[in-house]
Amino acid sequence: MEDSFRAVGIDLGTTYSAVAHIDETGRPTTIVNSEGDLVTPSAVLFDGQHVIVGKEAIKAVATDAENVADCSKRDLGQKIYHKRLEGREYPPEAIQGFVLRKLKQDAARLIGDFKKVVITVPAYFDEVKRKATQDGGYMAGLEVLDIINEPTAAAIAYGYQQGILNDKHEVARRQRILVYDLGGGTFDITVMEIEGKDFTALATDGDVLLGGRDWDQRILDFVVEKFQAEHAIDPREDPCAAGRLWRECEDAKRTLSAREKAAVTCDYQGKALRVELTREKFQELTRDLMDRTEFTTRQTLQASGLSWDDIDLVLTVGGSTRMPMVEKMLTNISGKKPNRSLSADEAVAHGAALRAQMLLQQAAGESPALKIKNVNSHSLGVVATDAKTSRSRNAILIPRNTPLPASAKRIFKSHREGQKTVLVNIIEGESSSPEDCMPIGQCTVRDLPENMAMHTPIEVRFRYLENGRLTITVNVEDQEMLHEITRENSLSPEQLDSWRDYILAVEKGQTEAADG
Ligand code: ADP
Ligand code: MG
Questions:
Q1: Superfamily classification of domain 3-168+343-375+496-507
Q2: Which residues line the pocket of ligand 1, CB cutoff 6 A?
Q3: Phi, psi of 479 (to 5 degrees)
Q4: Among the listed ranges 1-15, 52-66, 254-268, 488-502, which one has the minimum average pLDDT value?
């Protein structure tokens, strides 16, 4: 039976996911999956009537690559996942839904049934990707209590672990922490201040298309180049050969975190080549990737208004921070040795579990154990027309790194008498041209008052909630107007329900019924 006083934290990673809860002793603990592992590959194998998630799915990239969906988190915010699976198109959040469903069922086996979860997202996720994450949870049959930023979760886990949070969950001394999170698919950097009950983000930045996968790819390209020079064929042409080679390269990368050299064997169409790689060569092949994270780190520190002297601690999380080059770079620019006391794979899930527990306590009428204050990672704007050039431009209303919740209003004037509707295009991004920004959608107000005079002010108020989600209200002559938001790249409530039914039917082995 579902226990409504049970909630778990889920770190839904691009490459690996983890689930944690608060155990009987009150400590956050990672829940092992049904394979007995602490982390589950976020990969889905579509195998006829069956959908297999996790380790077996990632293994299948070597034999059945065309039917494996991995890194679907990278595609959130797009309408469909970048490849067809068994001839079918899936929205990326539905693939996330399958992953979440597996995580849920595995955890329920050990701790009993539950619905309530907190899911983490990169701080640098935009509004559309945040919504898609919540939708993935919905499709998995979960109740998403909240989404929180991964670096914030890591900071909470750190606060807890260090015992600087006392019984009252308070941090005795103010600390400023720089969280550097380099995972498999995303890079996130956040400067946080923790004091008392307050966990406050001062600035955040990142790259949702930069992670361990890109380091793997560099090794792969290097090996393929050598292989081609020798045998004049390219194993990347065959998805399964490419999948096999990728697994070899990822393995070599891990070896290079522990040893000075590693070897990759490339085997394709009866030809084979063994390629040796030193740590030094690997660093050279990936220097520009490392430089990108360095640049963003410096920029974020600057945006926070602090200098390295003000930073008490550099905290690293994410599997890719195990690469020695990360520690070297951070030590070099900050003059401080990064703190690696948190488990790179579990910290984010632990922070989410602590957050979930706090939300349950709050719902039970207890005072919140801590306060999380975020900033928005992308500027919010509307598409406006430049009066002089009559070109479209991004009129920014809430600049990035504004403390949340934040709101801004914009007055639009009706441009003719008796106007019936207004339409506002909402975007996120820093560029002045709307095409380079992320479209959130259109806000339409249809029932404007009858015979409304020309130039009547129509007030549109935009509000970011603490978790970075957006709400909108529209007022005309002090009256709140009904409006609808048509989202650009999101699923409608009906589509969500139908995917949810599908995911649950697949689990029960009843796909045919759901398909029809
Ligand atoms: P995400 O949350 O984005 O899925 P994780 O934080 O779980 O990512 O980290 C996964 C990434 O860390 C993968 O790219 C993996 O190859 C990399 N990784 C894990 N262990 C090591 C290691 N020892 N050395 C280098 N990279 C590692
Ligand atoms: Mg992660």
A1: ATPase, nucleotide binding domain (3.30.420.40)
A2: 13-16, 183-186, 211-213, 250, 253-254, 257, 318-320, 322-323, 345
A3: -115, 135
A4: 1-15
